[in-house]
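Q: Got a minute? One more chain.
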Amino acid sequence: MNESSARVAALAVCLDPITYDAVSYFMAGMPGAAMVGNLDHYVNADREIGRGLDQSRARICIIDFDRNTEEATWITDRLHSEYPDVHAFAVASSSDPEAIIEAMRAGCVEYFVKPVQHERFLNALARVEAKQKEKARSKVRGKVITLIGAKGGTGVTSLAVHLALELAQDGQRKCLLVDQHPALGDASLYLGLGRHQYSFSELAGNVDRLDEDLLKGFVLQHESGLHLLDSSDAVDAMYGAPPSAVEHTLAFLADTYQFIVVDCPPGLTEGTRACIAMSEQVAISMTPDLSSVRNTASYIDHLSKLGYSAGTIYLVLNRYSKKGPLSDDRIEQSLGRPISLRVPNSFNDVIRAINSGTPVSGNKSAFGEAIQKWSRALTGSANAHVPASGAAHAPAAAAGRVRALFGI
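A: Always. Here it is, folded:
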């Protein structure tokens, strides 16, 4: 991987050739990780590391303590004091507890005994990346809400458009809708706007030039005050921006807007996972049918394994009806957690809104009232009711419960 597109970049100091080749191989097998090089000296290595590793990425320095333990300790201490965001990994032949303690006191976050173990090294890289993402999220002032569908046709774009409009409140809040579909997204159509010549993926592809002036050239504005970053209108467009660029772009946008609503296609692509990584809330839109509930269970299981808490995941039952084919209790029991929001089946109202480019009014339909309820929960407005989070059963067992309850 090219270092410029890596989420995690590492630079070694005096690493012996065998260990360097092994570590480089390990990193090449981890998506988003890149090995930058191997310095052959300790003197002034801290300055070269500070300049050589891009600060927008998770930075790792792998230091060999065998060649000169004293100088390796000194460099580690310098990095710890001068570049606290650089994660120092110690590598040595000795497993003596005193040697490990000395390295850790100097500022190393990991200590590896040669030969470096593959799985342990990858776990250390994952921990560094997780810390970097948490750091990025902590800087975000605005809230990022990502919507994904349990399958195609669950009404994600309709929900995203109406939620974004409700959050914008006729220009009272700065809100941005991001159409993250790689091609032929419908958000601009639903808002009655023409296509923009540039898309969100192209903006993320220009992350090195990203500023407010560049952003203005990419944004469409609705009469309500809502801003939109469109998808590509090319039939064969492919999403090309790396995940790190998507995360960086969303972090930048969240310093500009109070709310960013992201409309994603079904499936956990790299681009969608990058959006989720920056999100305060991940909303899964499902409909009351077996395949939708089954897929939702798979999403919950997968996101739980990735470390996303139950409170982060928001379950939206779209096209809800009391006389639906699957009862609420049955769906909640199968998923092991409560439905966060029920959006009544207002199919005809929504279709009319799409065809006219005029969104459904919250004062005139049960659909709009449900969206208002969601918006109030996000903004902390009075009378907002947020369902209790947490699972009634272990999330990892959700898929199994779906099969058991529906006889599959």
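A: The two ends are 42 Å apart (CA to CA).
Q: Perfect, thanks.
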